[in-house]
Structure formats: C-alpha cells, structure tokens
Amino acid sequence: MSITDLTLYQQAILLLAGLILLTSFLMLGQTRLLRLIVIFAIQGCLLAAATALAAGVLAYPHLYISAILTLVLKGIVIPMLLYRLTHRMGLHRHMDTIDHPTLGMMGGIGLVVFSYYVSLPVVATSTLVTLNAIAVSLSVVLISMLLMINRRQAVAHVVGFMSIENGLFFAAVVSTYGMPMVVELGVAFDVLVAAVVFGVFFFQIRASIDSLNVDRLNTLHETEK
Amino acid sequence: MTAVYLILTTPLIGMILLAFRGDRPSAGTINAWLNLLAFAEALWLAGDVFRHGPKLSPDRLLLIDPFNVYLVVLTTFVGLTTSLFSKAYMEHEREIGRVTSRRLRLYYAMYQGFMLTMYLVLTTNNMGVLWVAMEGATLATVLLVSLYRTPESVEAAWKYFILCGVGIAQALFGTVLLYFAAEQKLGVGGDGLLWTVLHENAAVLDPAILALAFVFLLVGYGTKIGLVPLHNWLPDAHSEGPTPMSAILSGLLLNDALYAVVRCKMLVDGSLGTHMAGTLMMGFGLLSFLVAALLLHRQTDIKRLFSYSSIEHMGLMTFAFGVGSPWATFAALFHMTTHSLTKSAIFVTVGHASQLAGTQRMERIRGLILTQPTIGWGLLIGTVAIAGFPPFGVFASEFLVLVATMHDYPWLTPLLLLGIGLAFAGLFRHLQSMVYGDVPEGQKPIPVKLWPVMLHLAIVLWLGLSIPGFLGDWFNQATQLISGALPQ
Fold first, then answer.
1. What is the pLDDT of residues A134-163, one digit of tens each?
2. How many angstroms away from the CA of A147 is the closest CA of chain B?
3. Quick check: helix, strand or coil at residue A95?
4. How far apart are alpha carbons B59 and A224 in whole angstroms?
5. Long-range contacts formed by B352-358: CB under 8 A, 24+ apart
6. How high is the ipTM of this complex?
C-alpha cells in the first residue's frame, strides 16, 4: 500500500506525526534553553493543528475545544511561562551540557524502532495511520524521557515532562478522536497546575542549591552512609 | 447517591475555606471536623450500599460497589484520625517556628485537597477521571513535601514530582489504549472509558491491545504504589515532609494506587482470559517485597525505615492480588486494611517520637519508654503489629497470603517467608535501642494525643482475633467481584 492510496486527511496526519517526531529529536539535541522552549512551543502548535484537522475533517466538534486548549496551554501559556522564568533566573544565555550527544541521538532512533515494534499488535486491528500515530506518540514519550535523563537543568526537565504529555495527547487525538470532554478538561487542569507548581519549584530549588542544576540535588540516598 | 456527592463536596468546601482560614488557631479543629463529617457520610454510604447493593450515579460517572465502599470508609477513617494528630503536630511545629502562617494555610488546604482526590479516585467510574485524580493527588502533596524548605525536602519533592509525574504519564498512555480498544468495538462516543461499560464488554475487547495497555497502566500506577524499581521517590517524600503527610501518603495514597491497578486488572483478565496481568503483578510485587525487606537493614532515618516497610507491604499486597485466587484476593483486601491502620498509627507515633528527640536520626532517638511511656509503648506495639506478630491483624492477613500462595505456587512460599523474616529483623535491630536504651540528657515529655494510635492498634488487634461479620461480608463480596468466586 503506497501513501497515495490514503486520503488527504490521513496523509496530513502522517505529515504532522513526522513533524512532531522531528521536533522531539530537535529538542533532544538542543543545548540552548531558550531554543528548547521555542521548539517545545512549535510542537504544541503542531499538536493543536493535528487536533483541529481531525475536528474539521472528521466532524467531531468537541475536538475544536481541545485544539484551542492545546494551542493556548501548550503553544502559548506554558512556553511563555518558561521563557519568562528562564529570563528571570538569568539562564537565557545558559548552555546545558549534554553527555554523549551522539549516543543520545542514537538512543532516540533506537526508541523509535522499539516503539514501532511495541505497537505492532495494534496494526492487526487498525489502519496504518493509527499504527503510525501510536508508534510516534510512544516515541515522543520515550524520547522526552531520554531528554530528561540526559539533562541537568530543571527547565529542560520541565520541557521534557510537558513534551511527554504532548505525545500522549497526539495518541488520544489520532487514535481515539480525543478523550471524553470531562477527561480532557481534567488533564488540561492538571497540566496547568503542574506548570505553576514547577514555577514554584524553580524558586525553591534555586533558594536551596543556588542553581537550577538538578544534578546537585543528591543528598538523599537509598542506603545512607 | 446523595452520600457520595456529600463526600466529594465536603473536602472541596474545606479546601477553599482552609485556603483562607488555615492560619487561624482553629484551623486544625476545622480540619478535624471536616474529616469527621466525611467519615460520617462514608458510614451513611456504607450502610446504604450494605442494604441496597452497588450503585451507579445517573450520569454513570460515579460508581460504588463493595470493593470501593470499604476503601472509602477506611480512607475517611484514617483521614480523620490523622487530622487529629496533625492538629497537635502542626501547633508544635508553629511554636518552634518551622512553619509560617502562609505555609499553614497551604498545608491545611492541601490536606483537604488530597482527601478530595483520594475520594475521587475511589468513587469515579471513569478511567480517565481516575487518572486525573491520581495526578491531582501528586500535585496536592508535592508542595507539602517541601513545606519545611530544607535542601533535602526540596530535593525529595522534586524527585517525587518528576518521578511520579513521568510514571503516571505512562498510565495515561495505557488509558488511551484502553479507550482505543473500546472504541473499536463499542463505537465512537464518551462511554468507552466507563469502567462498568468496559467490564461488561471486556470479553470482546482486543486482547493484544489490552495486554499492552495493562503494562503501561501497571508501570504508571505502580510508580505511585512504590513498586521496585520505581520506588525511589517514596522514602524521600515520606521522610522529608511533615509527619501527618507521611501517615496519609502511606496509609491512603498507596492503597488507592493499588486499587486503580486492581480495577485495570479486572478489565484485562476479562479480555485476555490468561494470567498475564496476575503474573506481572506477582513479579513486581515479590521483587518490591524482597528488595524493601533488605533495604530496611541499611536505614538511619526513622521515617525512611517505615517507608521501606510500606514498600514491602505494598509489594506483598500486589503479589497477593496477582495470585488472584479467591483466598489470595481476600487476604490482599484484608492486608490493605490492617496495613493502612497500623502504618498510619506508626507514623503518628514516629512523629511524636522525633519531636520528643528533636531528630529523625535513629542513633539519637533513645530511651523513649523511660521518658514518655505512651510513645515508647506505642512505637513498640505498632512495630510488633507491623512485623506480623500474632495476635495482630497483620499476622492474620500475612498468614492468609502465605496459605493462598502455598496452595497455588508452593515454590514461592520460601521466598515470602524469607522476606517476612528479613523485614522482622530489619525493623527490630533498630527498634530495640530506640525504645529502651538510656535517656539522653534534657529529654522531656511533650504534650501528645495518642488515643487515635491506640484506637487504630486496638482495631488491628480486634481484626487479628476475629473479623466482624459485616466486614467479612464486605470482603467476601469484594472478593467475588474481583476474583469471580467466594473464598472456600
């Protein structure tokens, strides 16, 4: 089956899936915090576009609401919040160090392959687009986790955390046409509160270790010496 | 259903009220009254369900059945007794200047907020709302872990937030997969996440997708249960936050996360018809049980010690639910109750003990029984109970788990016995010198309110001697619901 056999909508979703995955890789390799946040905002906008597309083409009007929620929260509010906090913390010129950038990228590729492998049971029951969507969203989740492992800056951790939610949302939009409204609203509320709590934490962490390098948060151990 | 709505609105109103009034001297009392109200409502609900059977709200968003109604009663009860302790504890913390009035407002508001999320986790019928409430529980408690603003507590809170947040995101992915499987068979619509609908149609759902979903759900909610290797946040969060928080985290949050996993298991079992979900739970449970029992030996902080003991017991329960036979399920439900009551009582006593000694380091807590016999004896009896000595309830439930395992998986019994022995030694090697030992100079008794502890331990003792009829009935009904048969 070639890609031209698919409907235009499916092709567009596949394109967006590809772009979202690309933004994940860009984030994985990005050392400057501000650029990281910008890429994260772009990912949020792509996600909102995918949601709006699904809402329009498949005629699920409730998806428009979640498209707007996604655009406002993930595309604008949270990136703005992070952007301003980064400036206020004086980290806007900061270069985060990444241990083994090449290995990180290879790891990301491995995770994509792994995600496709894990999603194989789904293909037996569904279409090519759904398989791609689920595999891509799982990849985004796993790559974001890799990003969090690879970084030391608390800001980068928050971006990774929020990007995980982006991946999950993409899966929900493409494979199940969004979650029920009450769940969407609840998740959006949780994400918003989480963003605020993260902001509070930046100040608490800086007050306690005088930096946002979370590698220095290392006093608590499994077994004490 | 009125009672359910009341149980959900009471903490909501309380949260808003205490966000403004939490710094008044009366805040602790208001908090306790709110929890008493919730407990009374839970009893009303329980009586209702006992007489008229399971209930589903008209919009099908809330579900009360024998499995969750007893957990609602247990949650409100532990919430109530802990709030009584928290009143005295927070007053002491305010007097010694560890908390400001702003932080007190945050503390009391979030206490109620946490209770709200717990009730929502238990009573909701929607798997998505369950996830939202579970994440809400993290958000409500994370700022309380860093309440004292020490570097350690900020670190613990950060770890808790990141690990639980990332962990529980996996559960959301599992929930999406669940919904996906449901929509394929039931059509597009809002019903595909309702637990009752999923449970009725479990047999037609695609097994491959459900198996995949369960792995994610188990990892996600398992992080919150504190299953090894996802347990790192738990001892940190328990040891660095205020002690009443440790008591309700250990006594309630872990239980409710396990509740979520068992609900998922019921769906997956119906679809797969194999023991895959149970085997996974047994593996994770047994690993947690053994690793935590070993780590007990290496602790120096008294609250960390009992956090590892919580991981150990949660591991045992996960294992028992995984075994899945009626007896094992009955034992797991029973163990949930006894552990919850005993562990929250221990944390309350530990809180008093560390206030008395002015430290949480075990090497400097000495001579409790000589300075203040109630605290010393409370800690001693609590530890005896949690280590699984007869005649306490924990012994009875652990014994039932052993018997059930011996029946289905005899080759695993030695491992369980080994774990129980290790845990016993791990607890007592530290306890001996803290309870007895010489009194350090200048250690004076402090005002305490220990009757909630005594009440908990008395109930656990009673449960160890005989399970009252109504409770036995509940356990039986819940067992039948979960495992499909009555324990014979």
1. 899 999 999 999 999 888 888 899 999 999
2. 12
3. strand
4. 51
5. B352/B89, B352/B378, B352/B446, B352/B448, B352/B450, B353/B302, B353/B379, B353/B434, B354/B243, B354/B302, B354/B303, B355/B89, B355/B92, B355/B446, B356/B443, B356/B445, B356/B446, B357/B440, B357/B443
6. 0.93
Strand segments (E) across B28-155:
55-56, 63-64
CB-nearest to B126 from A182, A187, A208 is A182
Scanning A23-52 for CB atoms below 8 A from B yields: none
CB-based burial label for A102 (10 Å; 0-12, 13-18, 19+): exposed
- The answer to whether B434 and B359 are in contact (CB under 8 A) is no
Task: Kindly list the residues from chain B whose CB atom is less than 8 angstroms away from the CB atom of residue A178.
Answer: none
**Chain A residue numbers touching B131 (CB-CB < 8 A):** 183, 187
Closest CA to B246 of B315, B312, B151, B310: B310
Contact A179 B179 (CB under 8 A): yes
DSSP B376-445: HHHHHHHHHHHTT-TTSHHHHHHHHHHHHHHHH-GGGHHHHHHHHHHHHHHHHHHHHHHHSSPPPTT---
- B350, B379 contact by CB (below 8 A): yes
3-state secondary structure of B148: coil
Q: For residue range B390-429, what is the model confidence (pLDDT) as tens digits?
A: 889 999 999 999 999 999 999 999 999 999 999 999 999 8
Shortest CA gap B455–chain A (Å) = 33
CA nearest B361 in A: which residue? Answer: A224
Q: Flag if A122 and B209 touch (Cβ within 8 Å).
A: yes
Query: In one letter, which amino acid is B170?
Result: Q
Which helix (H) or strand (E) segment is A153 a member of?
none
Domain boundaries, chain A: 8-216
- Using a CB-CB cut-off of 8 Å, the residues of chain A touching B117 are none
Residue A173 confidence class, pLDDT cut points 50, 70, 90: confident
